[in-house]
Amino acid sequence: MRTQPNTVLDIHELSKRFGAFVAVDQLSMTVERGDVFGFLGPNGAGKSTTIRMIVGLIRPTEGHIKIFGQSLKAQRVNILSRIGALVEKPSFYRYLPAWTNLYIHAKMLGGNAVDTIDDVLKLVDLSDRASSKVKTYSQGMKQRLGIAQALLGKPEFIILDEPTTGLDPQGMIDIRLLIKRLSSEGITVMLSSHLLHEVEQICNRMAIINHGKLIVQGDVRTLLSQRDGTLHVIVDKKNVAKQALSALPWLQSVAEEANGLRISLPHQYIPDMNAALVNAGVRVSAIHSDVSLEDYFLSMVETTHGNTDLSGMH
């Protein structure tokens, strides 16, 4: 019986140097079973190099990679048979049908991969176009076919490197829904992306790297809650609410808005703020935060200043 360690990916002090250039620098992070894990960083941060080391395309200069509790260096064949990856833009035989493309890849994988073709086409919503030549596919359909290819053989862990690059808005939505579907099927997902709002919507944990170094990793909601920001709080008794909040030592500011209050405070005190309002007899209808993953990302990356290109992050 195959053991099921809770940690799917464990990277420890991983480094990759190309001559004098350090692409990845003593990077340590973990992906847990069931995660939709966001892997973030500005252009040139080392994300793609890290992914290439994880899937065995390049060798680390230093450090260790464990997947499913096993050393990638010692158990490479066994480990890679249990993971799928979409790295860079997927390539296919354009004049062959999608099903045939998957069949060729499945035969190379061996095992029961051929038996999974129809299932993965259904999972990525391409069953009705299985017999169509790939040259007739839109870019979004090609991306989904690439994910289908990565799913052949029923991997437990799938790594997607910028899967929405070059897609129109509908294509992005399709990939986002697909990732959620994969997670619901019990597949652990690692998603490298420059679309911060997308990561915020679909990822439960994340890591941010810059210049090859880890800046931060953890639960997305917890990390965002640790950043100071502005709240929009809808209440029924503004004056009573302002009086109750004025006694709180960590409150930074409070001002009236059309339908409530605008409050600035460290976000870890939101539960205490809510309790103070309720205890004062104030009805709290909603609490909205202005802190986004983009705000958090920019604040983290600014601490690792240098030649950081943020032009692709949004």
Any overview of this molecule?
The chain has 314 residues and is α/β, with parallel strands linked by helices. The protein is globular, with a radius of gyration of 23 Å. The chain has a 6-stranded mixed sheet, sandwiched between helices. Strands 2-1-4-5 form a 4-stranded antiparallel sheet, covered by helices on one side. It starts with 6 loop residues before the first strand and ends in a 12-residue tail after the last helix. The longest helix has 16 residues, at 169-184. It is 33% helix and 28% strand. The chain contains 11 helices and 14 strands. Helix 5 (139-151) packs parallel to helix 6. The model has no long low-confidence stretch (mean pLDDT 85).
Output the keywords:
alpha/beta; six-stranded mixed β-sheet; 28% strand; 314 residues
Protein topology:
Blueprint: E1 7-18, E2 21-32, E3 36-40, H1 47-54, E4 62-67, E5 70-71, H2 76-80, E6 83-86, H3 98-109, H4 117-123, H5 139-151, E7 157-161, H6 169-184, E8 188-192, H7 196-202, E9 205-210, E10 213-219, H8 220-225, E11 229-235, H9 238-246, E12 253-257, E13 260-265, H10 270-279, E14 284-289, H11 293-302
Parallel strand pairs: 3-8, 3-9, 6-7, 7-8
Antiparallel strand pairs: 1-2, 1-4, 4-5, 9-10, 11-13, 11-14, 12-13
